[in-house]
Amino acid sequence: EPEVTQTPSHQVTQMGQEVILRCVPISNHLYFYWYRQILGQKVEFLVSFYNNEISEKSEIFDDQFSVERPDGSNFTLKIRSTKLEDSAMYFCASSPTGRVGELFFGEGSRLTVL
Amino acid sequence: KQEVTQIPAALSVPEGENLVLNCSFTDSAIYNLQWFRQDPGKGLTSLLLIQSSQREQTSGRLNASLDKSSGRSTLYIAASQPGDSATYLCAAAFGNQFYFGTGTSLTVIP
Prior knowledge:
The complex is a heterodimer. By secondary structure, chain A is an all-beta fold. Helices cover 0% and strands 50% of the residues of chain A. In chain A, strands 2, 4, 5, 6, 9, 10 and 11 form a seven-stranded mixed β-sheet that branches. A four-stranded antiparallel β-sheet of chain A has the order 1-3-8-7, with no helix packed on it. Chain A is globular, with a radius of gyration of 13 Å. The model of chain B has no long low-confidence stretch (mean pLDDT 93).
């Protein structure tokens, strides 16, 4: 069964460093998302991406964040100059048809900022 | 801002019992509602998706309903099993975003 895959599963970084989280969405899906979940808190929307551009972003998704689809399969989230409060589980999701379609999530990338 | 809430926050039941998890949302202009299961430290597994034009969906022992006018969805789990122990999340789609509830942590006691 097709699935969303994410790498790395866990990354530890020093405050101020840049990290790139990678995702391979399901191949025939058109809409891609990043969410994050701080330990013990809600899953929060970061950004949605369609047709090679951001379609919507939350107030969390400030200038330190960026997303890219560098080729036909990967979807990346870059966090520049990480802060302690960026420590969270980051989930990638994809959907075949956007807001009326089913969301499929990856297993997540746990980011720990020291 | 859209709000999605889930009650109860935690639920513990003996094996075999039927149970209902609740999800409420603030806006009736919902596109769809999706229920997920999350095991500790893991990703979100989709359980059921209800489109705004539907009132319920069923999969095995699970049945989810949607009442847009009252801003509610319920997830009914029949004949609960210890393997059902997990956190259950609902997510409501408004615009291009899915808004998540805080989840209900379910423990099924053997």
